[in-house]
Amino acid sequence: MSRSSSGIVAGLTAAALAAVGFLAYQASANVPDTLGKPAPGASPSHVAKGPQRPRRDPAALPAHSGQGARVVYALKGDRVWLVDDGDKVARTFTVRPSTVDPEPGSYAVTSRTDRITGSDGVPIEHVVLFAKNEGVVIGFSSAQDGSMASPDPSKKTGGVRARLADGTALWNFATLGSKVVVVP
Hints:
Residues 1-29 form the signal peptide. With 184 residues, the chain is of the alpha+beta class. The protein has helices at residues 3-29, 164-173; strands spanning 70-74, 79-83, 89-94, 105-108, 111-117, 123-133, 136-143, 159-161, 179-183. A 5-stranded mixed sheet has the order 3-2-1-9-4, with helices on one face. The chain has a 4-stranded mixed sheet with strand order 5-6-7-8, with helices on one face. The chain starts with a helix and ends with a strand.
């Protein structure tokens, strides 16, 4: 091979290596983030399949929520449980929280009003008051029209809203002096 032909071969080899390098770079830049990862919900084959920790039922009564007849209100889950004196859940339901939450702890129902206009101007019924925080009285109620709109975040309100049927069940369950336990 002559000196000029070996120079051409070297040039072509360098050009070929540059092209391969460029194509490899492009391919690596376009790899989906999910390549090599298990599909959502799939168990990776390299992970040992031992006993799995059971998922907690969001409707399950929270641990450490007291004993005996009580209303339990979970702030994180926006859920209420009506618990009878045998520690059996009589009913559970979700609620729409107010802008001011009660502090976690144990309270007693201090007041009940059948029908009134709420601090947000909405006609409400079955008002069950049990706490005060930041100067705001806090209690459960239902909008008379059945709505569960989010409260205006710029106003301090204490109405924890339930659906009509749930509000009626709470009204019938939580008489004056009834225990209300608020958990995080």
